[in-house]
User: Which sequence fits this backbone?
């Protein structure tokens, strides 16, 4: 019986078309500048075209800074990759992986994230860079606004909270990490999950990825 659990990488689509964007932008700039030199009367059109080319070049360059993979599943736990860093959680700390939803009238609406409910925040708090924590606060403001609009949280809870976060009686977290942890607690109250992975960070359908994560977690826990 094979007791070794191989690592599984979930690819990110963020780096797709990076070379195409660079080449198209460069070509557009080259053509625009050539036409501009030959036909100065078309300067207003060609300058606009050149600016579009520069934007495409910038987009292509930015894509190179995106991680190739969004998730790493290993025997130890789950790691999420972001251009501002990563966070890690142990499988034992995961209560459930789901596609969070909310009721809007008679409809059931799903948020564009995969949600992870945690049993304990200690591991993730110790394995996230302050830079990523700060970025996550801003990237998930849409969830905070949605929770407030749907009446899932009160106005006082939906705002940024930079008060120190009491992780344990002996451990007090401050700074961006504290604000991120406060937001995690608020979103857990609203949608039932602490961590949120945007659906744009993987190529699978949400339910398909949830199934992959659940199966891997079950296998990992059996080997502990």
Assistant:
């Amino acid at each position: 019986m094979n007791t070794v659990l191989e690592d599984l990488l979930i690819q990110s689509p963020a780096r797709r078309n990076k070379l195409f964007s660079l080449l198209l932008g460069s070509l557009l700039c080259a053509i625009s500048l050539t036409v501009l030199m030959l036909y100065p009367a078309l300067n207003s059109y060609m300058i606009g075209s050149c600016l579009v080319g520069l934007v495409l070049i910038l987009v292509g360059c930015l894509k190179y800074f995106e991680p190739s993979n969004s998730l790493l599943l290993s025997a130890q736990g789950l790691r999420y990759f972001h251009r501002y860093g990563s966070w890690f959680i142990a499988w034992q700390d995961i209560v459930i992986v789901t596609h969070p939803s909310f009721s809007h009238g008679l409809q059931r609406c799903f948020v564009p994230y995969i949600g992870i409910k945690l049993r304990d925040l200690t591991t993730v708090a110790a394995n996230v860079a302050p830079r990523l924590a700060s970025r996550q606060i801003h990237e998930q403001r849409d969830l905070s606004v949605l929770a407030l609009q749907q009446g899932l949280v009160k106005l006082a809870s939906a705002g940024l909270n930079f008060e120190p976060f009491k992780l344990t009686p002996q451990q007090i977290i401050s700074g961006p990490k504290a604000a991120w942890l406060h937001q995690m607690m608020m979103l857990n109250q609203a949608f039932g999950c602490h961590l949120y992975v945007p659906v744009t960070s993987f190529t699978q359908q949400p339910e398909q990825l949830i199934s992959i994560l659940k199966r891997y977690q079950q296998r990992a826990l059996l080997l502990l």
